[in-house]
UniProtKB/TrEMBL annotation:
NCBIfam families: lant_syn_V_LxmK (NF038156). This is Aminoglycoside phosphotransferase domain-containing protein. The lineage of its organism: Bacteria, Bacillati, Actinomycetota, Actinomycetes, Kitasatosporales. It comes from the Bacteria. Gene3D superfamilies: 3.90.1200.10. InterPro entries: Aminoglycoside_PTrfase, Kinase-like_dom_sf. Residues 70-256 form the Aminoglycoside phosphotransferase domain. SUPFAM superfamilies: Protein kinase-like (PK-like). Pfam families: APH.
Length: 374
């Protein structure tokens, strides 16, 4: 998928996959009485699945996505997206902080789902990149996630009962033959580092055990900043393909991990000194940059926590610790995603792994530093 940045409206676009090859999209829209997408106006947004957006001949603006990947898994993810619609119905009217784009219809056979297009919106990732993500946004996002976690306490809506695939405990001991064949050199290096670090793998195993004992609630399960869509003052939560009843620490940790990942990403760049452009930053310089970036990030986690508490229950100590540990896993997951098709791990990725290790090995020691408690 080719991604371009459209500076005119700040959206990250992908080249739309040819709709002529996917006549099912038109069939779904026609079946829903929405007409056809106007061919000249079709855009696609950056994401894992193919998607098409734009106005239809009936004058409705739609976002349609096709769930890719193995069919059985795609069906499971479609069921999860639809379960979110059912969950929302259980919300008392005043619980407005949690919103998602309105679902217009779907086809289980063709693995397609259509939503109302949210106009003039930017994703959370775009907002963070442009420096426009405010503390108030952080509060709103915390309130949305806190509301989600408080929904359907009685378990009326049936949610995905499968166990989350990540973090992969088995791969901490050995990689499958298939994975060995297809992984990049950087991925293999990363797995080797993880497998040889007993304290770190014990941290990940402990996290999964604690997670299984935690009180369960509806969780997004795949939170990232690009799963947020901001339209003015309203924030929408997107992409509930991994919605299940699970440990709330997964979503809180992913939020924290997203900001840590961004802060660490800013550690790269040449060092200072005579031939600065040539030199990697010294460890001291890296540490200084990390401290400054963390200071900028912390309020975005504190406000998130306030919003979360305002919408429901403030996290207790055990939840804060698991959240810090899941933030560590999120960092590793991001490095894994970056190392596909790469030959080496960069110094910044190694720095990220070091920080992830601290979070997974000693989560209780870092909750205050992260802003998860005062
Ligand atoms: N209803 C919508 N209106 C406008 N933009 C949307 C809508 N839904 C998703 N998007 C945009 O498309 C991107 C991908 O959507 P998402 O549902 O997260 O798909 P994927 O499963 O491919 O990640 C989002 O990051 C967002 O920018
Ligand atoms: Mg997404």
């Amino acid at each position: 998928m080719t991604v371009t940045t459209d500076l005119a409206d700040h959206r990250y676009r992908a080249l739309p996959a040819d709709l002529a090859a996917v006549p099912e999209v038109e069939r779904l829209l026609q079946g829903l009485g929405l007409g056809r997408l106007l061919p000249d106006r079709i855009v696609s947004y950056s994401g894992r699945n193919d998607n098409w957006s734009g106005p239809t001949t009936e004058g409705v603006e739609v976002f349609v996505k096709h769930l890719g990947g193995p069919t059985e898994d795609a069906k499971r993810r479609l069921r999860n997206l639809l379960a979110f619609e059912e969950l929302l119905v259980t919300a008392p009217q005043q619980l407005s902080p949690l919103r998602g784009p309105r679902c217009l219809g779907w086809s289980e056979k063709d693995l397609l789902v259509a939503f109302e297009l949210v106009p003039s919106a930017v994703s959370g990732a775009e907002r963070a990149d442009s420096g426009d993500y405010t503390q108030q946004d952080a509060f709103r996002v915390g309130a949305a996630i806190g509301t989600l976690h408080g929904l359907d306490r009685v378990g009326r809506v049936r949610l995905d009962a499968s166990s989350p695939g990540l973090p992969p405990v088995a791969a901490l001991t050995a990689l499958s033959l298939e994975k060995h064949r297809t992984a990049s050199a950087a991925e293999l290096r990363l797995w080797s580092i993880l497998q040889h670090d007993e304290e770190l793998t014990a941290g990940i195993r402990t996290l999964r055990e604690r997670e299984s004992l935690a009180m369960q609630c509806p969780v997004h399960g795949d939170f990232r900043l690009d799963q947020l869509l901001f339209a003015g003052d309203v924030v929408h939560l997107l992409d509930f393909e991994e919605l299940r009843r699970g440990d709330p620490a997964r979503d809180i940790g992913a939020y924290v991990g997203e900001w840590l990942h961004r802060a660490i990403g800013k550690l790269s760049g040449p060092g200072r000194g005579a031939d600065a452009a040539e030199t990697a930053p010294s460890a001291k310089e890296m540490l200084g940059r990390a401290t400054r970036e963390l200071a900028r990030t912390r309020p975005l986690i504190e406000r998130f926590r306030e919003g979360y508490g305002a919408a429901g229950t403030a996290p207790d100590a055990a939840l804060r610790e698991r959240s810090a540990a899941f933030a560590g896993w999120h960092l590793i997951d991001r490095v894994l995603a970056q190392s596909v098709q790469r030959s080496t791990l960069t110094p910044v990725q190694r720095a990220a792994l070091g920080i992830a290790r601290t979070l997974l090995v000693s989560p209780a020691a870092v909750t205050a530093t992260l802003g998860l408690e005062d």
